[in-house]
Amino acid sequence: MRVLVVEDEPRMAALIRQGLVEEAYAVDVVGRGDEVLDWVQSATYDVILLDIMLPGMNGLEVCRQLRDQGYQIPVLMLTARDTLPDKVKGLDSGADDYLIKPFAIEELTARLRALARREGPSKSAELVVADLFLNPATKLARRGERSIELTAKEYALLETLMRRPNQVVSRHQIIDHVWDMEFESGSKLIEVYIHALRKKIDEDYPVKLIHTLRGLGYRIGEDENR
Ligand code: CA
Fold it and tell me: How far apart are the CA of 104 and the centre of ligand 1, in A?
């Protein structure tokens, strides 16, 4: 999951970024409202965290502009005050949810999981492919009865694949959802993490779930020949 955090207050932005990175999100931070559209055009975000009071353009206006341009990306609005007019204005501008500052990072990540569920094909909290289960709340995977611990990046990569079961997921899509703007395009990082995931998820099982499609990308699913 990749999140664009739009927040002009450096300490607040750093706190949110740190909390989300610890939870295996890829995070980019932008401090101005009038730069959001450029970022959204240059990368694929799963969700936008949008402060209301911003230099350049306020969050309500940013959200309205995104929706006017046809962007359906879920927006979680950050509001400083718990006042009814602010909430109403936020939701009217096209935001999907709002969070009142100050908030606990746990509440933020729970809201983000709820938004991802709303967008995804499955309404259940756990992602399932064959006998492989992934829990976005605990970040634990389970194959059959065996639980599998994952590093943050392994989790993010597996989640990206499992949200698109039986579909080819390109390297470009993986980079977009798992890494932030710091990713170096020539690097072998994806191969390294796929290798690590295979060791944990497929190595001991006759049915392999992670498939490589040369030149196209990767696919997760039971059926080898699809
Ligand atoms: Ca602000």
Answer: 17
Q: Where are the domains of the chain?
A: 2-119, 127-220
CATH of domain 2-119: 3.40.50.2300
Distance 168 CA to ligand 1 centre (A): 39
Residue 33 Cα to ligand 1 midpoint, Å, equals: 10
Q: Ligand 1: distance of its center to the CA of 59 in Å?
A: 9
Query: Per-residue pLDDT tens for 110-157?
Result: 999 888 877 665 556 789 999 999 998 888 999 998 999 999 999 999
Share of the chain above pLDDT 70, in %: 94
Question: How far away, in angstroms, is 107 Cα from ligand 1 center?
Answer: 19
Q: What CATH class does 127-220 carry? A: mainly alpha
Strands of 161-215, DSSP E: 210-213
* CA–centroid distance, residue 112 to ligand 1 (Å): 20
Distance from the alpha carbon of residue 183 to the mean position of ligand 1, in angstroms: 27
CA dist 116 and 6 (Å) reads 18
